[in-house]
Specification:
The structure is a homodimer of 230-residue chains. Chain A is mostly helical. Chain A folds into two domains: 48 residues, Homeodomain-like (Arc Repressor Mutant, subunit A), CATH 1.10.10; 147 residues, Tetracycline Repressor, domain 2, CATH 1.10.357. The first copy, chain A, has eleven helices and no strands. Chain A is elongated and about 55 Å long. The N and C termini of chain A lie far apart (40 Å). The interface between A and B is large, with 49 and 48 residues. Chains A, B: GO terms for molecular function: DNA binding. Chains A, B: This is TetR/AcrR family transcriptional regulator. Chains A, B: InterPro entries: BetI_C, Homeodomain-like_sf, HTH_TetR, Tet_transcr_reg_TetR-rel_C_sf. Chains A, B: It comes from Salinadaptatus halalkaliphilus.
Amino acid sequence: MTDRTFGRALNVRDDFMPAPTEQPVRMTTFEEPFIDPATSTEEIFRATYLVLRDHGYAGVSIQRIADRTSLSKSTIYYHFDDKYDLLMQFSEELLTWYIDQLVVDHEGDARASLDRLLDLLLLGETADGVCFESVFAPGYVATIMEMRAQAVRNPEMREYVSRTDAMIRNHFEALLEAGMDDGSIREIDSETVASMLFLLFEGALLLRSCEDDVEWLTAVRKPVDSYLDR
Amino acid sequence: MTDRTFGRALNVRDDFMPAPTEQPVRMTTFEEPFIDPATSTEEIFRATYLVLRDHGYAGVSIQRIADRTSLSKSTIYYHFDDKYDLLMQFSEELLTWYIDQLVVDHEGDARASLDRLLDLLLLGETADGVCFESVFAPGYVATIMEMRAQAVRNPEMREYVSRTDAMIRNHFEALLEAGMDDGSIREIDSETVASMLFLLFEGALLLRSCEDDVEWLTAVRKPVDSYLDR
């Protein structure tokens, strides 16, 4: 496993609090993940990201990934058991990266962080102009879907999917609790609402990626507020 | 196209009203789809269902389907352009069948029909004992996921997915409107709530199929009621 895990985002509730900044900067662009790899593992993740982007899930092979790094296939096999191990670790790492970019490394209270996520998924754009398309690469979303489809029958993939989903639900729950603490979210049953938000989030991620007309998704943004409003 | 289409379920609002029955029978079992095929097309659909159940999406081939019918490959190609055409039509037909079994051919008001769907997806079982697992075959759900994953990049699949999803959303909307008419559902914005229900429904279908522990899904059942309760 790499040393940056979900644990960081999940356990440290203070991460959700606004960091004191001299000069608050509104983020209007979204960096590509692993764009400046510092380790072999990050270099492999960067290459995986590019192969997924260009060739889709079915086009992923260790050879193709190696071709986009300075590393040999055997070096990749030194870090990862096989293609699936790599894809699972990549997927987990990318998710952590998303959470950091979207929520943790951002000013505002917990509700503001949650609003960013909901705006991005349901409206397709955050208030400060980050678009869904610039955040979620099609290859990555397709990979999530393929993994879920495999998990229907494959116990190992099923265990991975269950674990990752629980992490995201816990993240939502921690965010809701931080919001109740900082007064930006009304008193709610955080576990129930986290489950509901996760379903909406997952559904929106899926449908926004595989449908042409997703204008209907924006309607769902408003009723969600009624669960959260103070 | 086969002659039973979504149109039937979508346009005929009266279908949602309880049919007068002398002796209401509570349905506690769930028939397998296409178990008694009456036409070549239905025989092909039955075989497709069995191949998906036993081999998954990746194992579907026209040859394998033909092997489980009394028909030749060329007869199958007479009815369907290719494997994907067959899978799309199968998927649409199966969805209609589900809707009929779960909602249309059932006593009770519109809210009762909606409750059946929500209970099945969120609780895993309807009040009269029909289980999620006995309704949604794993191969079928995996097929939906694979198709969605393909739709991320394939315009034809994307168009199909968009069309099918719009049909289901319209179905939810018609059901909500029938509920407002028969007094079983409070006055709501049916389009908004239909979109939200569809997201929850789709998310639950997906996650219930690819996760081990889905107990957390049951928590979402209660807040949904608050949108519908009179």
